[in-house]
Amino acid sequence: MLTEIYYNYALLEAIQKIANPILDHIMIIFSSLGNEPFFVLALPVFFWIIDKSFAMRLSALFLLSALTNDILKYIFHTLRPDPEYIKVLFASSGGGYAFPSGHSQGAVVFWGQIFKQWSFKSLRWICIILIIFIPFSRLYLCVHWPLDVIGGMVVGAIFLSIAPFIFKLVILKDLLGRPGLIILIILVSIGAMFATTIPSAPKLVGILAGMAIGAVMEDRFCSFDPKSGNIIAKSTRLILGFVILITLKGGLKEILPGILISDYLRYLTMGLWVTFGLPWIVTRLKAGLESND
Predict the structure, then answer these.
(1) Which residue has the higher pLDDT, 184 or 34?
(2) Strands (E), the chain
(3) With contact defined as beta carbons under 8 Å apart, do 22 and 93 qualify?
(4) What is the Cα 21 distance to its own chain's centre?
(5) CA–CA separation, 114 vs 190, rounded Å?
(6) Which of 24, 124, 185, 243 is deepest in the core (most CB within 10 A)?
(7) SS3 of residue 196 by DSSP
(8) Which of 134-148, 176-190, 192-206 has the highest mean pLDDT?
């Protein structure tokens, strides 16, 4: 009975009755906003030109949520809609197990946290639209069941509700000091990576550890101000940042051996670049220019 309720093709078939080529492309765009490449590009923007404190909170919340999602998927082991029984679009975005939907959970956490941070009406409407249509796109594309999407949104809402308690963990810096906190982050992240067989764990744990360590180092060595500079300076900062970030992502994959810790080291390095590497370069260049004036 429960299996019949969960693996329900009826609603997916009803949604597919409104399908057309234009909607197909629109829903693929919405769904793409929940894929890894989008977040690899989106999260650094907050660090580099908007608000580094909010960026660290958002990144920590989102990455912990993503890791929890993958753990839940492996606990429940539910299958996705079968292409033999229904037309599946954008299947490449739907690998692995189904419940809960990572795109739905990520949309609620990422855009929900932005909704809470800023009160601009236009921005809030964008957040609401994305929180609704990213999950809906997963049903339209038939890569998830309705309960996957509902479950993902519920788990995402839980993460939003406990976000203030997660953010209070920053007091560890005052208790342990910067060196102690860095050592703790490394030990915990490596332990978490080896404690699970989930393929995505090294990446998620690695980039979170890299960002956290980089943020501690940035606070100590450069005190970067992301709001500094005019539009040209910020654009140059983004271009340089993304060129190096993409180079690290692809280049280190070719250089490092194909073992478990390689993904951890690759994403840790990317996280360090985002929160410390580029900010350090920018502050050094700015100090050099000011000393020449």
Answers:
(1) 34
(2) none
(3) no
(4) 29
(5) 30
(6) 185
(7) coil
(8) 134-148
Residue among 21, 16, 157 at smallest CA distance from 87:
16
Q: How far is CA 238 from CA 36, 38, 39, in A?
A: 18, 15, 15
Q: What pTM was estimated for this model as a whole?
A: 0.88
How far out from the chain centre does Cα 131 lie? Answer: 15
| Both structure tokens of 79 | 């299958």
pLDDT band (50, 70, 90) for residue 199: confident
pLDDT in tens, 260-286: 788 888 999 999 999 999 999 999 887
- Longest distance between any two alpha carbons in the chain, whole Å: 76
Question: Are 263 and 203 within 8 A, CB to CB?
Answer: yes
Compute the C-alpha angle 115/119/121, nearest 5°: 90
Q: Which amino acid is at 8?
A: N
In whole angstroms, give the CA distance from residue 145 to residue 121: 32
Collapsing DSSP to helix, strand or coil, 51 comes out as: coil
- Return the residue matching tokens 């029984």: 85
